[in-house]
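in:
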């Protein structure tokens, strides 16, 4: 059974739920914006499904719902943001201006975020930069959930990376992919719905291949493309740990309080101004020529196009959430029932 609501109703529900657990208005709006962007694009694993985790980390005191980031330029092309143990969305929102300015000054710039709690899809932050004409990358680590190539115990996080490329008069091309064969949220949703997942997504606690999501959650997820996804996960551990000085996934695994919410962690973003690399007059036309030729093959689409098409559906029909999720939100927050019976 599902419950229908408009995007505005879902946003309002998320804001009120977060505020009921001592999140201030600015943080509640920033977090709700990211969850509802995911609902709008039908990326269910990072929509309201994440709300109980956000609430749990406020209740446990792990996350400060009133945190304000501090942001400084620590090198000509490096901006550093300290999230002071708040949720990532407000830090990302407030660091976007300084990062953009730094990228336009230098042609390329980096943003390192520390002491932050990230629980969202990364396409949101790279697309925001691409909407302003910049090419953007984002990387974050998590907690041990994926076995390294050759191993059979969780070690790496699902460690996603995202990339967005700006387009003239069109929404950006963007891809955003976990280093694991699929996002953990999708395994959790399959477990909730009682369905199997595809072979290759994970192994059980004894290291045997399984398609049972509950066994994978007790065992380990697997990297996409074997050693190739494993190498990308390793790169992201190095960027988030030794480079910017935040916790690697194994460190997060030892230090997190396991309240079900996002662990403390870091994020690295890179922003590139395509007008500063010697092809200022040609990059847009060459981009469209490349995409046009690519799309001549039947069956090919650009990454992100699925999401853009989904926006038309949710703008028209609203969204649906499973009633067990709605019940949990009401139970966790004490909010009155407004939807369903
Ligand atoms: P998917 O495997 O669903 O998709 C990966 C990318 O491939 C998407 O950009 C998708 O675009 C694109 N894609 C899929 N099919 C095609 C196709 N046929 N042609 C062209 N492009 C295609 O994502 P994952 O399961 O790997 O990751 C899901 C999310 O989980 C990500 O948003 C990631 O940021 C998030 N995540 C967050 C973590 C955190 O700690 N915050 C940890 C791990 C993951 P499209 O959307 O258009 O389908």
């Amino acid at each position: 059974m599902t419950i229908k609501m408009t995007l505005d109703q879902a946003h309002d529900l998320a804001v009120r739920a977060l505020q009921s657990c001592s999140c201030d208005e600015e943080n509640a709006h920033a977090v709700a914006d990211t969850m509802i962007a995911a609902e709008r694009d039908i990326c269910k694993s990072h929509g309201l499904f994440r709300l109980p985790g956000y609430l749990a980390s406020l209740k446990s005191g792990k996350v400060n719902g009133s945190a304000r980031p501090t942001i400084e330029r620590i090198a000509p092309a490096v901006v550093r943001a300290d999230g002071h143990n708040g949720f990532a969305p407000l830090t990302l929102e407030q660091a976007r201006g300084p990062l953009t300015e730094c990228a336009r000054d230098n042609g390329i710039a980096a943003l390192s975020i520390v002491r932050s709690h990230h629980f969202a899809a990364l396409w949101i932050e790279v697309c925001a930069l691409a909407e302003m004409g910049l090419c953007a990358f984002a990387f974050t680590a998590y907690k041990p959930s994926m076995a390294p190539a050759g191993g059979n115990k969780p070690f790496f996080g699902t460690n996603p990376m995202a990339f967005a490329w700006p387009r003239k008069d069109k929404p950006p091309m963007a891809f955003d992919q976990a280093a694991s064969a699929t996002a953990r949220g999708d395994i959790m949703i399959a477990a909730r719905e009682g369905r199997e997942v595809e072979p290759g997504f994970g192994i059980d606690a004894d290291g045997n291949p399984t398609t049972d999501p509950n066994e994978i959650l007790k065992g380990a997820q697997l990297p996409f493309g074997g050693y190739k996804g494993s190498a990308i996960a390793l790169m992201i551990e190095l960027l988030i740990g030794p480079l910017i000085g935040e916790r690697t996934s194994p460190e997060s695994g030892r230090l997190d309080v396991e309240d079900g919410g996002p662990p403390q962690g870091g994020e690295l973003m890179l922003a590139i101004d395509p007008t500063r690399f010697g092809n200022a007059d040609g990059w847009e036309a060459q981009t469209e020529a490349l995409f046009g030729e690519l799309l001549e093959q039947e069956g090919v689409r650009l990454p992100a196009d699925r999401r853009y098409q989904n926006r038309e559906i949710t703008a028209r029909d609203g969204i649906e959430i499973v009633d067990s999720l709605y019940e949990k939100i009401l139970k966790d927050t004490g909010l009155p029932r407004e939807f369903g019976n």
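note: The mean pLDDT is 97.
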